[in-house]
């Protein structure tokens, strides 16, 4: 029973390039959450998606960042025209539709470490 | 302003010692969760506490949720090197999907 799968594990991009981070939730989980973790900082919520719907994007920067969770395939977090400040670890988490994270918590992936040079 | 304050930020102890880490807030949460994160990996859920005053035990780990549901503590008895890691607390508000995380306590247990 595979857990939450994120790829790539490490991604290096030059300033101005695009970064695409992928997340496949656990089997049976239809809710996906993206968090960003900066060094010495806690995890910061970015976006919460269900299949084909963005439920809450209150933590997502207004520009350059977008997320999707299509009917088929993984969830994608896309960062356009990356800048050095985007360097961070990006974690995806998932939960099943009938067991919300407030009572049952998240299952996290191993993260994608983005380095912008 | 950090909504969830964790203390201490760093803790280095010898194997066999006991320790307590704290998670405090001025806000009320519907639940609090504790995660452990190892370098290069994602956080792993340890426990969720939901009821004010609740105490949960997981082998050598004891978790407590404050009566007012604003704070929590994690106590480890007879720490082992395998307990080394970053301990994160996270608060949930109602039925919202997102959690609010503290910055964590970095624990190092030396053999």
Features:
heterodimer; A: 117 residues; mainly beta; 4-stranded antiparallel β-sheet; 1 helix; 3% helix; B: 111 residues; 6-stranded mixed β-sheet; 5-stranded antiparallel β-sheet; globular
Molecular structure report:
- The complex is a heterodimer of chains A (117) and B (111).
- Chain A is mainly β and 117 residues long.
- Helices cover 3% and strands 48% of the residues of chain A.
- Chain A has one helix and eleven strands, in the order βββββββββαββ.
- Chain A has one helix spanning 101-104; strands spanning 5-7, 10-13, 19-24, 31-37, 43-50, 53-56, 65-68, 75-79, 88-95, 107-108, 112-116.
- In chain A, strands 2, 4, 5, 6, 9, 10 and 11 form a seven-stranded mixed β-sheet that branches.
- The N and C termini of chain A lie far apart (36 Å).
- Chain B has no helices and eleven strands.
- In chain B, the strands form two sheets. In chain B, strands 2, 4, 5, 9, 10 and 11 form a six-stranded mixed β-sheet that branches.
- The mean pLDDT of chain B is 93.
- Chain B has 111 residues and is mostly beta strands.
- In chain B, strand 6 (55-58) and strand 7 form a beta hairpin.
- The A-B interface holds A 4, 6, 31, 33, 35, 40-45, 48, 55-56, 58-59, 91, 93, 95, 100-111 and B 2, 4, 30-31, 33, 35, 40-45, 48, 50, 88, 90, 92-104.
Give the gist of this structure:
By secondary structure, chain A is mainly beta.
Give the topology, please:
The complex is a heterodimer of chains A (117) and B (111).
Chain A: E1 5-7, E2 10-13, E3 19-24, E4 31-37, E5 43-50, E6 53-56, E7 65-68, E8 75-79, E9 88-95, H1 101-104, E10 107-108, E11 112-116
Parallel strand pairs in A: 2-11
Antiparallel strand pairs in A: 1-3, 3-8, 4-5, 4-9, 5-6, 7-8, 9-10, 9-11
Chain B: E1 5-7, E2 10-14, E3 19-24, E4 31-37, E5 44-49, E6 55-58, E7 61-65, E8 71-76, E9 85-92, E10 99-101, E11 105-110
Parallel strand pairs in B: 2-11
Antiparallel strand pairs in B: 1-3, 3-8, 4-5, 4-9, 6-7, 7-8, 9-10, 9-11
């Amino acid at each position: 029973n595979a857990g939450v799968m994120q790829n790539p594990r490490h991604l290096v991009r030059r300033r101005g390039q695009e970064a695409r981070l992928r997340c496949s939730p656990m089997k049976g989980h239809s809710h996906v959450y993206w968090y960003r973790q900066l060094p010495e900082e806690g995890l910061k919520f970015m976006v919460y998606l269900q299949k084909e719907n963005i439920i809450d994007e209150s933590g997502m920067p207004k520009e350059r960042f977008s997320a999707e969770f299509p009917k088929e395939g993984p969830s994608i977090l896309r960062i356009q025209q990356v800048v050095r400040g985007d360097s961070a670890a990006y974690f995806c988490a998932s939960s099943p539709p009938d067991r919300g994270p407030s009572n049952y918590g998240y299952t996290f992936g191993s993260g994608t470490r983005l380095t912008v040079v | 302003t950090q909504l969830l304050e964790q203390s201490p930020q760093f803790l280095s102890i010898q194997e066999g010692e006991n320790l307590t880490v704290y998670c405090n807030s001025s806000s009320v949460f519907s639940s609090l969760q504790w995660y452990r994160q190892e370098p290069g990996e994602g956080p792993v859920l340890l426990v969720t506490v939901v009821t004010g005053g609740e105490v949960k035990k997981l082998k050598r780990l004891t978790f407590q949720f404050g009566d007012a549901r604003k704070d929590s503590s994690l106590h480890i008895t007879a720490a082992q090197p395998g307990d080394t890691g970053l301990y994160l607390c996270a608060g949930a508000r109602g039925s919202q999907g997102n959690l609010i995380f503290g910055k964590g306590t970095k624990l190092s247990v030396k053999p």
